[in-house]
Amino acid sequence: MNFSLDGLRTILRACAGEPENGDLDGEVAAITFEDLGYDSIALLETLSRIEQEYGVAVDEAPMDELTTPQALVDYVNSRLARETAHV
Amino acid sequence: MNTGHTAAQEPTAAGRAATHRDALPVFTGLAVAAPNGLGTDAFWSATRKGVGGIGPITHFDAGAYPVRVAGEIHGFDAREHIPSRLVPATDRATQLSLVTTAWALGDAELDPADFGEFDGSVVTANAVGGVEFIQRELQSLWSKGPRYVTAYMSYAWFYGVNTGQISIRHQLKGPSGVVVTGQVGGIDALAQARRRLRDGQRFVVAGGADAPVCPYGLTAGMTAGNLSTGEDPDTAYAPFDRSARGHVPGEGSAMMILEPLGAARERGARHIYGALTGYGATFDPHPATGQPPTLARAARIALDDAGLTPDDIDVVFADGAAEAAADRAEATALVELFGPRRVPVTLPKTMTGRMYGAGAATDVVSALLAIRDGEIPPTIGGGDLAGELGLDLVTGGPRPARLDHALVLARGDGGFNSAAVVSRVP
């Protein structure tokens, strides 16, 4: 299983709405969540939804490092890869 | 406390007379979202004509509940009014409070960005919390598990969240708060706003919001034993009537912008709807003590605060519990204050149901618009005991009247009483 930027877009829209600044469908991969207008609780909600849908435990997610959509996508994919490797 | 309070007979200079006129707290912006009108214009044109918004419950299937009718706002889609970012994080009451705040600021032509970040405060009333939000998350908790409870639950349920979201959205960083005093909160919030202005705040957003029409809200409300089980929307909420059987719950929000008169005039405020000239609040003795309720005293304190006598009051927006004993007690208080049938009394809340934290705030808006338009909105439904109880209840259509001072009364479960006097500003 792979977690894509589009997958993140869908989840962000559902649980945190459109960004306050800019277009979520645009080049957002490297823009910080903060600049997009998503606060920490919106991110927590997003992580929780990712966990529900992708089965990735996010209890120990390094929140302070996951500051952009790309960082979050990469983190989730690294976890998915690790879990696949364990199977 | 002196139970022989004689202020009404001997007005003191404690209120308006002692207040420098420039400091008089005035209303410069208003907004209402109510079951009989989404937006002030829709609400007021319906209210003037006596068009009610109580109907069969549609927000959920109420077939299994003893309460079948409510005041619901139809056609409200939060996404049309507030950033989508906020929609998943907010209860309906919060959404209504955000919408009405934006409208009230627009009505006042007041842009908080033109002021210092600490110049504006927010004070809102809320009685039941984000009940619909709570219910949804409790359903997730018990059906799916704790991991499925949204992170937004941490604040979205809370009484103070409306003030918080308004503060964030409009960057109002002055001292702010919430009053949780049941159905009188809409008046208490205005009193707290007045304190903030006296402390030097430049402007305050104040009002109330509640959205209790969901299974959890209704079930919680039913425990008080005073919700109407009537199934006919026209007769279910019948204050001052032989058929009185409790009230119909309603959802709504009313927000107002308050500023000191001098500063409002200086910035060229478009509207000065009126002033908050008097406020009084009491809490009833426990019924077991045999001591009478204290609504009349709250009204006297408010009149005294305004430097007015009962003769100065041109209209009363009454509480209208629609419970036999409480109706009688309110009528007794009004007759004691004013004499039998000496002042027009009205209950526009018969068109909306009782909107808890929003109820008294909405009545204040109605009082201000009645003063502006020289017309008392009618009471619909009920009222067949009014004459017998000594009340001149306005029914059958609006009543033209020159209005300078209006008294707004509110009571809440458990013994809350609050009274506000709002006055024309010449």
UniProtKB/TrEMBL annotation, chain A:
Residue stretches making up the Carrier domain: 2-80
Cited InterPro entries: ACP-like_sf (IPR036736), PP-bd_ACP (IPR009081), Ppantetheine_attach_site (IPR006162)
Phosphoprotein in keyword set: yes
Alphabetic keyword roster: Phosphopantetheine, Phosphoprotein
UniProt signal peptide: none
Name of this protein: Actinorhodin polyketide synthase acyl carrier protein
Organism whose genome encodes this protein: Streptomyces alanosinicus
From TrEMBL, chain B:
InterPro entries noted in UniProt: Beta-ketoacyl_synthase (IPR000794), Ketoacyl_synth_C (IPR014031), Ketoacyl_synth_N (IPR014030), PKS_Beta-ketoAc_synthase_dom (IPR020841), Thiolase-like (IPR016039)
Residue ranges constituting the Ketosynthase family 3 (KS3) domain according to the UniProt record: 22-424
GO molecular function: 3-oxoacyl-[acyl-carrier-protein] synthase activity
GO biological process: fatty acid biosynthetic process
Alphabetic keyword roster: Acyltransferase, Transferase
UniProt family annotation: Belongs to the thiolase-like superfamily. Beta-ketoacyl-ACP synthases family.
Protein name, per record: Actinorhodin polyketide putative beta-ketoacyl synthase 2
Lineage summary: Bacteria, Bacillati, Actinomycetota, Actinomycetes, Kitasatosporales
